[in-house]
Amino acid sequence: MARILLLLTIGVVLWAVLRGFFRSQARDGRPAEAQVEDMVACSLCGVNMPRSESKAEGGKVTCKDPATCRHAP
Ligand SMILES: [Zn+2]
User: Fold this and answer.
1) pLDDT, mean of each 10-residue run, the chain (73 residues)
2) Model-level pTM?
3) 48 CA to middle of ligand 1, Å?
4) Annotated domain spans of the chain
């Protein structure tokens, strides 16, 4: 009887540890997915960049900083 209780205790502890491990992995995965940002291509120089570094002008996406745009005048 004592052996069965010991095995049950070990099983419950293992289940709790594995559950905590998989939950922490799921939590770690979410921020990485949230950080993924759309990539857009500059309509002037064709450079790909995150949307936050681009500028939409008249329906065209261009580099936010004209100095970094290779085709800037
Ligand atoms: Zn550009």
Assistant:
1) 87 87 72 75 91 89 86 56
2) 0.45
3) 9
4) 1-30, 39-67
